[in-house]
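Folding Task

Wanted — backbone structure
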Amino acid sequence: MNVAEHTKSLAPEQYSSRKKHKAIDLAVNKALTFDILRQLKWSGAICSNDAKSCYDLIGHTQASLSMQRVGVPRNIINCLFTTLQEAIHKVRTGFGDSKAFYGGKVWLVPIHGIGQGNGAGPAIWAVVSTTLLNVLCEKRFGCEVLCPLSSEYFRFVGYAFVDDTDIIQSILQEDLESARRQLQAAIDTWEFSLKATCGAIVPEKIVWWLVSFIWSGSSWRYAGIQDSPGELLVNDIANTRKVIKRLEPHQAYETLVFFWPQMGI
């Protein structure tokens, strides 16, 4: 992780498992993003999603490549994943350990995943998720910001804390369909990339908002679902297309340990 931080090899969108990063920083930055959309009257779309059993669905091959990318020696990676693949699992009770077990070298196909409670788990997910977030960046999804004072330009695709990820898409013009269509493409890219690492998305834990504004004659207001109809779809672990739940701009949704109105109102 020290090498990854020093070489700036971690996605800035990933806030977990890193020094000098806090969940509250993510929450504040997310609120500021909604403030910018409101102040500039940009259209946009936001999708909050959760990966299914992220630590248990990490493929060892994909994790190995991600770890080598940030400088982890191959012999250390081999030691880690060989131990996980050949571990013998027993049940421990007050009467002692069970005689029956599973695991060892009997698997025809080694079991993958890094396991809950694995001390290396957070760092492994940080480098694996960085690759997934980089895919969205390379596809030019996300939100663009030009700082008015410093003239600094930057682009980001959302906010992630472990596997809780908010994918954000902004459009400078009042083109709601373009915002919805681009967010749909971003979600499909994210889901396909997760699947490439042996992961999956849980459609029941996904919600989204379409951000747009309507001039009422004397003031601006957020457009509701009736004003801007549209839906998003995502594949579940069985590749079945599911409709994602859409919320009104005034409806809040709990992410991380915070419960904030998503649009900042």
In short: DSSP finds six helices and 17 strands in the chain. Residues 2-58+120-260 form a domain with the Alpha-Beta Plaits fold (CATH 3.30.70). The chain has one domain: 2-58+120-260.
